[in-house]
Design brief:
This protein is mainly α. The chain has helices at about 35, 75-80, 80-90, 95-110, 115-120, 130-145, 155-180, 195-200, 215-225, 235-240, 250-260, 265-280, 285-295, 315-330, 335-350, 350-355, 360-370, 380-400, and strands at about 5-10, 10-20, 25-30, 55-60, 65-70, 70. The structure holds acetyl coenzyme *A. Acetyl coenzyme *A (ACO) binds next to α17. Acetyl coenzyme *A binds next to α17.
Length: about 425
Amino acid sequence: MSTTATLEYNGEKYEFPVTVGTENEIAIDIKTLRAQSGIITLDPGYKNTGSCESAITYLDGEKGILRYRGYTIEELAEKADFLEVAYLLIFGELPTRDQLDKFHEDIKDQSVVDEDMKKILDSFPKSAHPMGVLASLTSALIAFNPSSVNVSSEEEMYRAIVKLMAKFPVLVAWTLRKKEGMPLDYGDDALGYVENIAKMMFKKPNKEYRKNDVVINALDKLLILHADHEQNCSTSTVRIVGSSHAGLFASISAGISALWGPLHGGANQAVIEMLEGIKADGGDTKKYMAKAKDKNDPFRLMGFGHRVYKNFDPRARIIKKAADEVLGDLGVTDPVLGIAKGLEKEALEDQYFVDRKLYPNVDFYSGIIYRALGIPTEMFTVMFALGRLPGWIAQWREMRLRNEPIGRPRQVYVGENKRTFIDIDKR
Ligand code: ACO
């Protein structure tokens, strides 16, 4: 295998080293391209750009492989719990029982959120989208935890990480409870991390909280499946904001905003809205398949297609099975599930979708489970953010520990050449 690549332009030859990853991914290291030649690369959407070297998550979109720190997503979803996976992603190894217990204890120590944060939450209208509320509250946490801003040592980073892992679920639960008009609650430190999240979210003020293993298992699995996905839009946002040393909470708040969009994390909400729209319109899936293929129609089949998975999304396989189990266990019959299955079948057999390698992604089925768990549609992307938190943290920590330079892409300018200013009354 060649260790260098040569670029020839205008009769000049430029040589660049080739970097090979542990899974044999090959990249031409063009760090010196501009200095050598004055040329830059152009890659809108970064489809061919490796923005960093990372040891956290490996995925192969052609083979449908997803691994966190070397462990397959299938094995982690079956055998690990969410906090264990969070530890693995952030610190690189599966924790021992003692390490996990200490991590959990440290988190529990930090799980109280300043009471004044409630005033900020109160000032939002009930109609506010929970993702906007969550991004704002995460940003507001900075003001109440100033020591978490300028962190550079591993110990300072650890303290900031633990604070966020502790307080973020509280903010998520409060965002839901505000939307539902329920009193804010703190859960119970005696419970497991995910069980406590479930209690904080779902406990009714007039009823004792009862653990439901189906709900906890489904939540654990969903959170694990969403926990990291290498350099996607929100994660790249977290890394690039963090690269200015803006601090963990500010970087995560920016990541939440990036995740909100319907082409990214917002797709799980968009899927359910689409399925409900099809149901309300008589359930004619063929009509919507035709709309998705019509280039003059902006409609896209939400939950289909992925920037990197071009054969299948391994998370979608796990989640599809989980959706059947959860609905069965909870005794829920959801008419939109039938529409989802019909659409999936038609799309998988349709030449347009086959040619473009468009398969159901993780969000095609996650919304159906969230619905079965009683989570309102607008909260789906918040649940995604809750799952993605350890991945964002791990990526931020890796970027800081590697002392990566500030992210600052270049551009090819295509605007006007120099021109002379014209006074306003002469234009
Ligand atoms: N429905 C219909 N056609 C589609 C769809 C879709 N869902 N997705 C892609 N296509 C078509 C495009 O129109 C394009 O067709 P063309 O080659 O004839 O012009 C071709 O497939 C390639 O699509 P791109 O948009 O170039 O693919 P890209 O990799 O840029 O986009 C994306 C990936 C954004 C996920 C896209 O497939 C999409 O919009 N899907 C629906 C939204 C969604 O489910 N997002 C969640 C992604 S997963 C996540 O964030 C967790």
